[in-house]
Amino acid sequence: MKFAGRRSKWWVTLIAAVCWLTVMPAPGTLLAASLEVDEELGNSPYQFWGFLSKDNITIGTHGQGTFRHWLGITSVKSTLALGAQNGSYGTYDLLLGWLRVQNEILGLGGTGYFRQIYGLHTIKKDLTLGSQSGSHGIYDLRQGGLTVGGNEYIGYEGTGKFTQTGGSHKIAGTLTLAAKSGGSGTYDLLGGDLSAKTIEVKQGGTFNITGVDNKLTTTVTGDLILEGFLKVTNANLTWDGLITIAASGLFKTDPSQVNFLDDVKVAGAIQASPGDVLVLHQDLIFEGEHASANLNQSTVVFGDGSGAATVHTIKLPATVKIDTLKIEEGDSIKISNGSLNVRDLEGLVIDPQNNVIKNIISEDGSNIIYDQASNPELGGKIYSLTNGGTAIPTPIPASFLLLATGFLGLVAIWRRQHQKIK
Known about the structure:
Mean pLDDT: 89
Oligomer: single chain
Number of strands: 34
Low-confidence stretches: 1-29, 400-414
Keywords: Membrane, Transmembrane, Transmembrane helix
Strand content: over 45%
Radius of gyration: 30 Å
Largest sheet: 34 strands, mixed
Number of helices: 2
């Protein structure tokens, strides 16, 4: 880069001098392999902009320590630790610049607080919040980028909390909330984007996706294994990954729209509030005796609206109540293992001559019960589903009750005659 005139060269010299002098409040630390910042050492708060390279950096070893990274590059070849000992408190403020570390621990034995206002933060291996029992780790991502090359633990054996109001958060490995028994982990996604290979919310973990002042529109990328609690509030969320809700897991929306791009497998519970919309691009599978769904005041849509012919499998846990079931054009659903009780059916493809609903397939004779008053276009009729099963209106037509009564009467007569023969 060329600078015109002596004046520009003078400014370059001044900036270089400032970058050098700002490291000087910690005399004797520039040549040391490691850096400790603590009030007990007399070098906190540590104000920095320029270039700093260390094997290890510890902020808050025994007491309180603060590191303010204004500009420039900080490089840690091994471990950055905040809040090393029990009772200590370490703070790192990344205001602008680039922080590069190998491993990072917020709350090793004490409390570690990392605040990223802007800038870039690159962790080659793992990020841990709340490492040991009794420790606390807090990360506040406001803007900028955080990239983790390994795994991330929010609450390993201690307590961890990650709040993201903006920026980009990328994890090459697994993001785990409440990794070990006794650990507690909370992730509050209030803005920005989050991606990981796998997101694991264990029983001590809570994942909140929330629009605070306005509706939040965001995408979360990664396969979800939910053993704890996940809640989506005032958001338009797209989840790009396989959703697996374990027997102990609860996925709750209130009020929101969630677009599931991959399969949703439920062994626990999924709950939607009045007015919520769940859009499933693939399958909805309920598995196990604890599987349940509370969708009776929400809309469930199958298909992405592209017109592509997709058959969506719905494996039911006995009876599921849905307020509105919509099938996008070109798509169809295949139900099994139970029955669907639906107030309003939308997007049906009907063969009027044979009274067959063509885009609902019954794999094992499973039925659909629909509300007659909400579907006047169906005329209160009983329809056959493709491959077996029926769509029955409620209240049940008198003709169907008469037919059922007559059938039961014939069965009773047959039983009496059979007993006489014996």
